[in-house]
Write a structure and sequence with these properties.
The complex is a heterodimer of chains A (111) and B (514). With 111 residues, chain A is α+β, with helices and mostly antiparallel strands. Chain A has helices at residues 28-37, 47-54, and strands at 23-25, 41-43, 65-71, 78-84, 92-93. In chain A, strand 3 (65-71) and strand 4 (78-84) form a beta hairpin. Chain A is globular and about 35 Å long. Chain A starts with 22 loop residues before the first strand and ends in an 18-residue tail after the last strand. Chain B has one helix and 34 strands. In chain B, strands 1, 3, 4, 6, 11, 12, 13 and 15 form an eight-stranded antiparallel β-sheet that branches. The chains are: A alpha+beta (111), B mainly beta (514). The A-B interface holds A 1, 16-27, 29-31, 33-34, 38, 60-61, 89, 98, 101-103, 105 and B 17-20, 23-29, 51-52, 54, 56, 58, 60, 62, 92, 173-174, 180-182, 296-298, 323-324, 326-329, 331.
Chain lengths: 111, 514
């Protein structure tokens, strides 16, 4: 399982704009498609968010991670997601069980 | 079919995004259940009548960015309609999007591409009834075209075409079965027997059902070194300890037992085989795997299908390229199986095997939990589709009549006169009539044919109080003169009610009346 993940201070999942009960995706590309269609945006984490969410997080292969924030349409909630640094593993850490999507799930380039 | 890209009847019994093999995304109350289904043992359910209005299910397939055509067939039913029109199928495009909507006001299905008014299909739907939807989305040029047919299960259905004057586009991301955005609508609906293809000529895919084949025997193993064992550490040998008994649970999430590779050997594998099917046609097949590992550390393994020509299709790794199995909970992978060089038929499906193993790094042990082959096919002898003609007189003119029936003709009680220059039906089994004039009178006439009925050139008149032949498959009529008169004619055909005359195939729901 990922280490120091999910962050206990992250907003509760799923976002109420989409579902009251469940939202899960198999990879980062699909997650971004679902969220952006519902009006969410994404951006790099702030320095404070890097320190809060991603500094000590590791994927299940114990690789360090890089973070991305997905922001609610009203701008009030910022959801952290992460991709492990290993160029082959590329696991995505997410906010629903089992909190990761598996090898290759992070093969997505943010535009 | 040349290029199916996703086949499922949800026969794996699982709604999980883990691994991306079953779905790309699940939103809200989308679930796989076994109570309401069209075929097999499971179907997808959206039931938002109890609260959260969100529901959505992403196909585990994302087309290449250059793709311009998508063909699909699925079955859908509404048990509780939404209170207002809403999108139930969404196909993202590069610039715009393609939507299929359902209207509870008219009980119809429509389609549109962004910026263009919706085109409604004239088929009127009823609740608690399965409907087949065939579609072909073509955005290769201006205008973009969507052909779509809506048919009550077992019927030939009604075709419609949406034309959107807009620039050429491309497919973008996964097909989405939805709605998923919360609103005031609630609905209870089901999906089953889905197949998607990238080949324009596959439209309309037509009737079919998806069944899930679980392994029922061991094949030939390459496990002399005892590398691959069951979860009680018994070496899989195919005589005392079997692989298939540990891989056949449904739903595939059942982790009661599994097989595992204990020691490194990237050539070792075990092989399982599947029960035979009886099909009149096969659209394609997809392999499905559930797996995990003893711990989260990196390892490798393989699971792939082998067909009659020894061609491998990797579900997750194959004999030469292994994949990472290091998940601590059950993950799922799937792959549409490469079509054999001939074409799919039941013999080719029967020949399919799955091999598991090939781990050059079995620390931690990779666990293979369950496997399945989902097959989209038309079962031999069925299903039956009906084409009904109102009472009246119909005339088809021309020189020849050659109806061909695959299965049965059943005529209800009545008086029938068949006249003309020649009548020579030929049956593969039991009934053969030479040229002449026939009058059949009496209370009942119920000839049954096993295969075909063909009539030579001539003019035929069928008169009487009732005529209700039932055909399981096809009627092919050459150009000719055909006259059926009488108080009632109720023809029942199969396979889309296709009738061939004048050198071409024609689909119709109701024959025109003289």
């Amino acid at each position: 399982m990922p280490v120091n993940w999910p962050p206990p201070t992250a907003p509760s999942w799923p976002p109420p704009e989409i579902s009251d009960t469940w939202l899960s995706c198999s990879d980062l590309k699909t997650l971004i498609a679902v969220m952006t269609e519902a009006g969410f945006t994404h951006e790099a984490p702030t320095a404070a968010e890097k320190n809060l969410y991603f500094k000590d997080a590791q994927c299940d292969h114990l690789d360090s991670v890089k973070g991305r924030m997905i922001i609610s349409p009203d701008g009030l909630r910022r959801y952290p997601f992460a991709v492990c640094d290993d160029g082959n593993h590329r696991d995505v850490l997410v906010l629903w069980p089992p909190y990761y999507c598996g090898a290759g799930s992070g093969n997505f380039i943010f535009e | 079919m040349a290029t199916p890209v996703w086949i499922t009847g949800f026969e794996h019994g699982v709604a999980s995004t883990n691994g991306g093999g079953l779905t790309g995304g699940i939103v809200g109350s989308a679930s796989v259940q076994g109570t309401v289904k069209r075929s097999g043992n499971y179907a997808l359910e959206f039931d938002t009548t109890g609260g959260d209005a969100a529901c959505g299910f992403y196909a585990p397939y994302s087309p290449p960015a250059s793709e311009t055509d998508l063909v699909g067939r699925f079955y859908v039913r509404w048990d509780t309609e939404p209170s207002a029109e809403e999108t139930f199928l969404y196909i993202p495009l590069g610039i715009g999007d393609c939507y299929f909507d359902y209207s509870p006001a008219t009980h119809k299905i429509g389609c549109y591409i962004t910026g263009v008014s919706i085109t409604w299909n004239n088929e009127v739907l009823s609740t608690e009834t399965w409907y087949r939807v065939d579609f072909h989305l073509d955005v290769s040029s201006n205008p973009n075209i969507v052909d779509f047919t809506v048919a009550e299960d077992g019927q030939s259905g009604t075709a419609a075409q949406h034309s959107a004057t807009r620039a050429a586009d491309t497919l973008f991301t996964s097909v989405v079965f939805r709605p998923y955005c919360p609103d005031s609508n609630t609905r209870k609906m089901y999906w089953d027997d889905i197949i998607l293809s990238l080949t324009p000529g596959d439209y309309p895919i037509g009737a079919g059902e998806v069944i899930g084949l679980s392994p029922d025997a061991d094949g030939t193993h390459n496990n002399a070194g005892g590398d691959i064992q069951d979860n009680d550490s018994n070496v899989i040998d195919g005589s005392t300890h079997y692989a298939y008994t540990h891989l056949d649970s449904v739903p595939l999430s059942d982790t009661t037992d599994h097989i595992q590779q204990e020691t490194n050997d990237d050539t070792a594998y075990v092989e399982v085989t599947f029960p035979d099917i009886s099909a009149s046609s096969v659209n394609g097949a997809m392999g499905v795997l559930a797996y995990y590992s003893a711990t989260a550390a990196a390892n490798e393994g393989a699971c792939y299908t082998v067909d009659s020509e020894a061609t491998e299709t990797a579900i997750w790794g194959d004999s030469t390229t292994q994949q990472d199995y290091s998940e601590e909970t059950v993950f799922y992978k799937s792959a549409v199986i490469t079509e054999p060089s001939g074409t799919w038929d039941d013999a080719e499906v029967d020949a399919l095997k799955i091999r598991l193993g090939h781990s050059g790094d079995a620390n931690p042990d990779p666990y293979w939990v369950n496997v399945m082959i989902e097959v989209d096919y038309v079962a031999a002898g069925g299903p039956t589709y009906t084409l009904e003609c109102d009472a009246g007189t119909y005339a088809i003119t021309g020189a020849a009549l050659a109806p061909k029936h695959d299965k049965k003709i059943a005529c209800t009680a009545g008086t029938y006169a068949v006249t003309g220059a020649a009548l020579a039906p030929k049956h593969n089994k039991k009934l053969g009539c030479v040229a002449g004039t026939y009058a059949v009178t009496g209370a009942a006439l119920a000839p049954r044919h096993d295969k075909k009925l063909s009539c030579a050139a001539g003019t035929y008149a069928v008169t009487g109080a009732a005529l209700a032949p039932k055909h399981h498959k096809k009627i092919a009529c050459d150009g000719g003169t055909y006259i059926m008169t009488g108080a009632a004619a109720s023809l029942v055909y199969t396979e889309g009610g296709a009738v061939q005359y004048g050198g071409g195939w024609h689909q119709f729901q109701r024959m025109s009346q003289n």
